[in-house]
Amino acid sequence: MNRLISFADTLATILCLILISTHLAALEFVRYPQPVQAYKEHNIYPLSLLKLAISKVESNYQLAPSDIFMNQGRALKQLAAEVDIEILWTMTSEEREQALNAIRIPIYKGLIGWRLFLVNANPNFDLTKPLALVKAKKLNIVQGHDWPDTAILRHNQFNVQTGPNYEGLFKMLQYQRADLFPRSIIEVWDELKVNSVSNIKLEQHTLISYPTASYYFVSKNNKALSQAIGQGLEIALKDGSFDALFQLHFSKMIKKAKLDTRTHYRLKNPLLTKETPLDNKRLWFSPNLHEK
User: Predicted confidence band at 38 (pLDDT cuts at 50, 70, 90)?
Assistant: First the structure.
């Protein structure tokens, strides 16, 4: 009797393992760039939105981080070469849309282009009043060397210095090798926590913005993944779950930024392609603010 029970248990275990292995074999893993440990919270929303989109369509896609950390420049190259990752999310540009397949639904509704200034609290300017645009353009602004923002700010006559390392940009600000570091209102709060040093402050009176889209990108050859995610995002937009997720993650940050109390300068973005869906109002964050 004991032998029969033991055989039945063994058979059940084998069948269970077969079912598990069959299920795993059916999954199609979609790898994204592994984020820096200190800033993993930045990826909670785009990952949540991506999972939402996938849940709206029939698929076997399973999201997973890459085995190693890769900076943005490397991730773009790896995706184009179809090595290590199948998807990433980043600000768009004509160059990126030529190299990769952009899913043209702005995942942050353009909010990534709404920027506050992190500043080095030195005597270079008065923190008690709005920063005049002509003054801001004369100060040293720091950005990543391969960020689209760098080209956007330079196009608008800002004096931009660059660095190759994300963490190093905050060091440049801290050690007075830069005066200003424009950060999105959805990034700046976490960055202030991580970089909590006495001379890095949030400027309280000024706002710059420029139209920009952050998209999910896949390789040119991965049309099935592109179609599935695009379809899922469209369904989420129609049923309201996209907007609900956006509000859940960002409504407090938007309120905290006090946009309507700031002097607002609207800049131009020369990097957007003609395919950017700027006329589709449902896709964009658009507060009613006075522009200078």
Answer: low
Amino acid at 12: A
Categorise residue 110: left if φ over 0, alpha if ψ from -120 to 50, beta otherwise: left
Q: How confident is the model at residue 21 (pLDDT cuts 50, 70, 90)?
A: very low
Q: Whole-angstrom Cα distance, residue 138 to residue 166?
A: 23
Q: Which residues of 140-169 are buried (b: 16+ CB within 10 A; e: fewer)?
A: bbbbbeebbbbbbbeebebebebbeeeeeb
248's tokens: 């859940």
Cβ-count burial of 236 within 10 angstroms (0-12 exposed, 13-18 middle, 19+ buried)? buried
- The pTM assigned to this predicted structure is 0.84
Dist CA 149 CA 214 (whole Å): 12
Q: Parallel, antiparallel, or unpaired: how do β-strands 214-218 and 88-91 relate? A: antiparallel
What would the DSSP string read from start to end of 240-255? THHHHHHHHHHHHHHH
Of the candidates 205, 197, 186, 204, which has an alpha carbon nearest to the alpha carbon of residue 250? Answer: 186
How many CB atoms within 10 Å of residue 234? 15
Structure confidence by residue, pLDDT tens digits, 110-149: 999 999 999 988 756 678 889 999 999 999 999 998 899 9
SS3 state at 159: strand
Distance CA 121, CA 176 (A): 9
In three-state secondary structure terms, 160 is strand
